[in-house]
Design goal:
The protein is mostly helical. The protein contains seven helices and no strands. α2 runs antiparallel to α4. The chain is elongated, with a radius of gyration of 20 Å. The N and C termini lie close together (9 Å).
Length: 227
């Protein structure tokens, strides 16, 4: 069993598999540069980044809803999340805003807060680079540095994972906003990005799941597969 966010993510990535299949059917498997097919590679880079961003938003919302549904009281909320909520209340211009969380209304307030943060990020057109993803999970769930979980094998350190993500997102920006990158976008970059982002989603999901379990005692999923 996987999180609903991961199910949607995997379904979305099916579009990338189809792009790669089309690339293969048009160009074959022989080596050498393939002409007139770079548009497929560009499209894949843009889509993978969009799917990654959607996954992070979705699992943050899903995890928060799980915490709220399983919390017996506001005392069960993660400490860092309560800190973020306190900051939001202190910044509010309305002097009566503190009463928005009184009398068991705190759950509705937290849900509305997440919706507002999501809309604010959309308006600002923030990109899903490592710093922005860290901020998303800090604000939404009280997870400090979710990117600290982005490590695997001996070579992929947290620093390398963050740098690699940021470079791919920058590549997406070049393609999406300028229509082209400084260099041609190759199929090898697509397959590398695809495998990398799957790993990143798994590590992020695992961190979120353990965070949720620590908070309310019940994880989002109970098998080793789900992220």
């Amino acid at each position: 069993m996987a999180s609903e966010a991961r199910k949607a993510f995997d379904k979305n990535l099916g579009d990338i598999d189809r792009l790669l299949e089309f690339h293969k059917s048009e160009a074959g498997e022989s080596s050498g540069r393939k002409y007139n097919l770079e548009v497929l590679n560009k499209s894949a880079i843009v889509l993978i980044t969009a799917f990654w961003e959607a996954y992070c938003e979705d699992i943050a919302a899903e995890a928060l809803e799980h915490i709220l549904n399983n919390a017996n009281s506001s005392d069960d909320l993660p400490k860092e999340l309560k800190k973020q909520i306190s900051k939001s209340l202190k910044k509010a211009e309305n002097e009566l805003s503190v009463w928005e969380v009184a009398d068991q209304k705190w759950k509705d307030y937290i849900r509305a807060r997440l919706d507002e943060m999501t809309q604010a990020r959309d308006r600002k057109l923030n990109t899903p680079k490592s710093d922005n993803i860290d901020l998303l999970f800090l604000d939404a769930l009280g997870i400090s540095k979710v990117s600290s979980s982005w490590r695997w094998d001996k070579k992929m350190t947290v620093e390398r994972a963050r740098d690699k993500l940021d470079k791919f997102v920058e590549l997406r920006g070049s393609v999406a906003h300028r229509g082209c990158a400084l260099e041609s976008v190759k199929k090898a970059q697509v397959t590398d990005y695809l495998g990398f982002i799957k790993k990143l989603a798994a590590k992020t999901g695992g961190k979120v799941n353990s965070h949720v379990k620590d908070a309310v005692g019940t994880p989002l999923w109970t098998t080793s597969r789900g992220t």
